[in-house]
Design goal:
- The structure is a single chain.
- The protein starts with a strand and ends with a helix.
- The chain has one domain: TIM Barrel (Alpha-Beta Barrel).
- It has eight helices and ten strands.
- The relative contact order is 0.13.
- With about 280 residues, the protein is α/β, with parallel strands linked by helices.
Length: about 280
């Protein structure tokens, strides 16, 4: 398990400045976003020159791009916007190998037309599920065309909000191109009675062979559910790391959901938890 970080954690005016900030943390793995290179996350055109430049600048600093963000609302109620996003997703896919990665991360969308991270009651409707499958089939075909993997993250506000639904999606799609990003904090639902450690264990039983990236953020319930930097909330990271280790997870553990000033403390905390999990 290698510790990494979202490149967007560091706000810099240039790609070089962004990658230098990552390098200064001592980490060597990133989940990249094209916005760090001055492009939209989903580019308006295929820009292989920039893709190659990103790869070269990462190689200079011995940084590995574990995945690039391709997140958009895959069940957006505005059909024209959805078609445009899928078109731009294809541009991103065409740039991936030149950029030095073969994984694109995704969410599964919400019926909320204004905020991709806000839940909507229609997310649980059969129509939302059918629209998700329609979009995912197209995205999986794009992934196959460019020899990529798509890593979908269960999110509380999205159609795939838990591990059971993620398993259903994997079984329905039945594609080797479709993988999972596991974020333990996303699996916490305040109204559920099951302890989070049991929820994580269940998730890994259902999904472990498909999990290629794990995320590291935290949560607090002191003033309603709020996400926080890893190690500063209520998530039992000792149990989380032990469960990942026991499931033979060997992918990257990616820090996110934190301010740059919180990075050193979270890195130190996670390194200690990762080592403890091996004992």
């Amino acid at each position: 398990m290698r510790l990494g970080i979202f490149s967007k954690t560091f706000e810099r005016p240039t790609l070089e400045g962004n990658l230098d900030a990552v390098k200064a943390t001592g980490l060597s793995v990133i989940q990249f976003n094209l916005s760090c290179a001055g492009l939209p996350s989903l580019p308006h055109e295929i820009d292989l020159e920039t893709a190659v430049y990103i790869r070269e600048e990462c190689e200079k600093r011995h940084l590995h791009i574990a995945a690039v963000s391709g997140t958009f609302n895959v069940i957006h109620p505005d059909r024209q916007r959805l078609r445009d996003d899928i078109r731009r997703f294809r541009h991103l896919a065409a740039m991936c190998h030149s950029m030095g990665t073969s994984v694109i991360t995704l969410c599964t969308g919400t019926r909320d037309k204004d905020n991709m991270w806000r839940a909507h009651p229609d997310n649980n409707s059969p129509e939302a599920w059918d629209d998700l499958l329609t979009s995912m089939r197209e995205l999986v075909n794009i992934a196959a065309e460019y020899e990529l993997e798509l890593a979908v993250e269960p999110e509380p506000a999205n159609v795939i909000s838990d591990a059971v639904k993620a398993r259903r999606l994997l079984d329905t799609m039945d594609s080797p191109r479709l993988k999972i990003v596991l974020d333990a904090a996303n699996l916490f639902h305040p109204n559920e009675g099951m302890p989070l450690t049991e929820v994580i264990e269940q998730a890994l039983l259902l999904l472990s062979e498909h999990v290629i990236i794990a995320h590291a953020k935290d949560y607090s319930t002191m003033e309603g559910l709020q996400y926080r930097a890893a190690g500063t909330g209520e998530l039992d990271y000792e149990a989380y790391m032990k469960l990942l280790h026991a499931s033979h997870f060997s992918g990257p553990l990616i820090l996110h959901g934190l301010h740059e000033r919180e990075v050193p403390q979270s890195i130190s905390y996670l390194k200690s938890r990762i080592e403890a999990a091996k004992l």
